[in-house]
Write a structure and sequence with these properties.
Length: 154
């Protein structure tokens, strides 16, 4: 092997080593990203609604106990929308407490489901204060999944 070939091999080895070093240092910056969890509720079942709130509380507690950050969003559509309605939520008191004490947890109602209820009942049912609305709940879940959020249906 001549000097030129040896020099190329040395340069190549140096570049490969540098790539490993850069990759190794880049990994911790990804760890600084908050964990992201989207919880789906689409059933008019108080047991499942309580399960969604339990999961949100447990995951939030877990990551905060490790010194990490987690963003949690609960998206309600179909029968699950009752969870977020002022006049009929079976978990209203607990949900209101979440909104007051857990800023990392948010609640989103499906606008299509709200429109369906409005047509059926002759008025749009009121949402619990602090709940936001998206036009299509399932599309919101899909958008979050495409942004690497973890989607769970307890």
């Amino acid at each position: 092997m001549n000097r030129r070939q040896a020099s190329r091999r040395g340069l190549l080895r140096g570049l490969v080593a540098a790539a490993f070093i850069v990759t190794g240092f880049a990994a911790p910056s990804r760890a600084a990203e908050p964990h992201r969890l989207a919880l789906q509720i689409s059933d008019d079942d108080p047991v499942k609604m309580r399960a969604v709130l339990d999961v949100a509380a447990n995951v939030s507690r877990h990551y905060s106990g490790e010194g990490g950050d987690v963003e949690i969003v609960v998206i309600a559509f179909n029968g699950g929308l009752d969870m977020l309605l002022e006049d009929r939520s079976p978990v209203k008191e607990r949900l209101v407490n979440f909104l007051k004490s857990m800023p990392n947890v948010s609640f989103i109602a499906c606008g299509n489901t709200l429109e369906t209820l409005a047509a059926k009942e002759g008025r749009r049912p009121p949402l619990i204060d602090g709940v936001s609305v998206t036009q299509v709940g399932v599309a919101a879940l899909m958008d979050l999944a495409e942004k690497n959020w973890t989607i769970v249906r307890p």
